[in-house]
Design goal:
- This protein has 82 residues and is mostly beta strands.
- It has a domain at 33-82.
- The chain is 6% helix and 34% strand.
- It contains one helix and six strands; from the N terminus they run αββββββ.
- It has one helix at residues 16-20, and strands spanning 29-32, 39-44, 47-51, 57-61, 64-67, 74-77.
- The strands form two sheets. A four-stranded antiparallel β-sheet has the order 1-2-3-4, with no helix packed on it. Strands 5-6 form a two-stranded antiparallel ribbon.
- It is globular and about 25 Å long.
- Mean pLDDT is 77; it is low at 3-14.
- Residues 1-27 are annotated as: Disordered.
């Protein structure tokens, strides 16, 4: 089964990439681990978009709590802006 384009890195830039490019109006914000800076999810509106291996994707409401798969740190995404 071919990989969709959004998994090949062709998706629009989010969070840090948009801020670096000067796009302050971009609504998406990255949620990263507080210890190792691994990407945990992307805030889209009032929800988090989470993507895991083998095509598992979820939209979850805020606040959200997750354990980083890289270092094991417990992270919390508050309902207010990150």
């Amino acid at each position: 089964m071919p990989t969709p384009d959004f998994q090949r890195g062709y998706a629009h830039p989010t969070g840090r990439a948009c801020r670096a490019a000067g796009d302050s109006d971009h609504p998406d914000t990255e949620w990263r681990c507080t210890r190792c800076d691994k990407l945990l999810g992307v805030r889209r509106g009032g929800q988090l978009h989470l993507r895991f291996a083998r095509g598992h994707e979820y939209f979850v409401s805020l606040p959200a709590v997750a354990t980083c798969r890289g270092c094991g740190t417990l992270n919390k995404a508050p309902s207010s802006a990150i």
